[in-house]
Amino acid sequence: MSEPKSVPGGLSRFSRLRVILALLGFGCSVYDAPGNGGGGAPPFDMGGSAGTAVNQGGTATNGGGLGGQAITAGQSGGSGRPTGGTGGTSPDGSGMTGGRGGMPATELGGAAGEGGAAGEGGAAGAGGLGEPPPAVDKCPDDPSKLEPGVCGCGIPENCQTLKGKLIHRYDFKGADAVVKDRVGTADGSVQGATLSGNGRLSLSGGTTGPYAILPTTLISTLTNVTLEAWVTWRGGAAWQRVFDFGNTDGGATAYGKTYLFLTPQSATSVATAGYSTSGSNGEIDARATAGLLVNQTSHVAMVADDAGNQLILYVNGTAAGTAAWTGSLSAITYVNCWLGRSQFDINERLYGDIDEFRVYSAALTAAELSTSFKAGPDPAFLAY
């Protein structure tokens, strides 16, 4: 058989027929092949995997050659890409492609989801409470207190019991002859002088010097008593009196008959607190071991403790002398209640200053008198 004639365009009719038949066979393989890459199934955002290129090209008729087999599988459709994967390639000279690429992700597969927003960092935890700040020490010189309290720095809080037992208080703050009772109503007076207004009873001593007179009922109804004073003794003869409550024998030169007293210095040069209902011969004395220091302010107190049957002399907050005592305050005849003068005319009057004089209706304890000494005259807790 002779070779068919060529047709315009460079291919013979026979060759062109072969090409058409090959294309028809390839078309069938394309539309029937299950290996096409499909789009990703919703709701996933990835495209489907490309189909495996397994279908062969259609069989050529009229002696045509077999279509090329798709060797390379189509690529998977990428996540979020608009198209599927690329189809496989054919090794034969026809340049035909293998199986079709997967469908675009936008047709079947879900769109690629955007990454979630970055989570915000947790709020910063609140700082721990930690240790409380140290307390401010408002009493740096008092190791027992951080706050002044009611009584003040350096003063124990039992000052309140002192205040409750205090029945008369004289601070000598006037500027005339009146000695005011700042707690009760038992005002007194100064004889031979006037107060200077500086809160001090200043006495010049000698045999005719000034002194103060207090009401005769001051302690007459009491069973127990504490008589307390802050005194600056200027020295001089023995037996001067800080206070002396009682009466005399009524003689031209009077001698004490019944009395309760305290002297800065006795004949034996010691501070003494005494009681008698029968003059000097029946005197009961609580003696210290020394006299009061001259020109220095001293705290003194006499405690008549009927329940405890004793007299106690305190100097600067400490018990300085004691004496057994079975008497009673009611056994004294209160005609003269003097500050700075003795029931014995032969004794000189006080030469010195009294800053404050107090009367308590109780036998104060050692702790209470220690507190009173520390607080001193005119303390804040006795303000009026």
Task: Describe the protein in words.
With 384 residues, this protein is mainly β. It folds into 2 domains: 8-111, no CATH class; 159-382, Jelly Rolls (Sandwich), CATH 2.60.120.200. The protein has 3 helices and 15 strands. The strands form 2 sheets. The protein has an 8-stranded antiparallel sheet with strand order 2-3-5-14-7-8-9-10, with no helix packed on it. Strands 1, 4, 6, 11, 12, 13 and 15 form a 7-stranded antiparallel sheet that branches. A hairpin with a 7-residue loop joins strand 7 and strand 8 (256-263). The chain is elongated.
Broad structural category? mainly beta
CATH topology of the largest domain: Jelly Rolls
Largest sheet: 8 strands, antiparallel
Share of helix, binned: under 10%
Overall pLDDT confidence: 79
Shape, per Cα inertia axes: elongated
Number of domains: 2
Per CATH, the class of the largest domain reads: Mainly Beta
Give the number of DSSP strands.
15
CATH architecture of the largest domain: Sandwich
User: Which strand order spans the largest sheet, edge to edge or round the barrel?
Assistant: 2-3-5-14-7-8-9-10
Unreliable segments of 5+ consecutive residues: 1-8, 26-110
Alpha carbon gap, first and last residue: 152 Å
What's the helix-strand series? HHEEEEEEEEEEEEEEEH
Strand content: 15-25%
The value of Rg in angstroms is 61 Å
The DSSP helix count reads: 3
